[in-house]
Design brief:
This protein has 148 residues and is mostly beta strands. It has one helix spanning 100-103; strands spanning 13-22, 33-35, 50-52, 54-71, 74-88, 109-121, 124-133, 138-144. The longest helix has 4 residues, at 100-103.
Length: 148
């Protein structure tokens, strides 16, 4: 819990996520790490950063309450998020068979940032996010379920 700000009572949380990985043996494109997209770096489209043999990605997300209301005899909590994501392929895009990221001139690293709404419903979290990336691109993301 991090009590920075929120618009109503409820948990104010800073969520940190760090992931990394490498492939031992042949790195074929359909088994390689895909960088960019709603589950990687928001603000980029799927694989728009790289298709890689190794990677590191990090996320910091601040979640805060906005309001709560009753609907269908359930309490629905609506919260906001502020986030920043970063990923790098550690220069391993050329180690993937066929070099798809190199052929498509992917940057190999990038960061995205933005804000969103997160609604906790009986079926799980429903998220709507708007993200920008360091190359000037934008993405609007709608997902059901938590990111991590």
């Amino acid at each position: 819990p991090v009590p920075l700000f929120g618009f109503t009572k409820g948990a104010k949380t800073l969520v940190l996520n760090l992931q990394g990985g490498t492939i031992l043996g042949d790195a074929i494109p359909y088994d390689s790490f895909i960088l960019g997209g709603a589950s990687s770096v928001r603000g980029y489209d799927l694989s728009e950063i790289s298709t890689a043999r190794s990677f590191i990605q990090a996320t910091a997300e601040y979640r805060y309450p906005i309001l709560a209301f009753n609907a269908f005899k359930n309490v629905i909590n609506v919260g906001g998020t502020l986030f920043i994501d970063y990923a790098t392929d550690l220069g391993t895009a050329d180690a993937v068979i066929g070099q798809p990221a190199v052929a498509r001139e992917r940057p190999g690293d990038g960061f995205g940032y933005g804000l969103g709404l997160r609604t906790l419903t009986p079926i799980g979290a429903v998220r709507t996010e708007f993200a920008l990336n360091d190359e000037g691109g934008t993405e609007f993301i709608f997902t059901v379920g938590d990111r991590f």
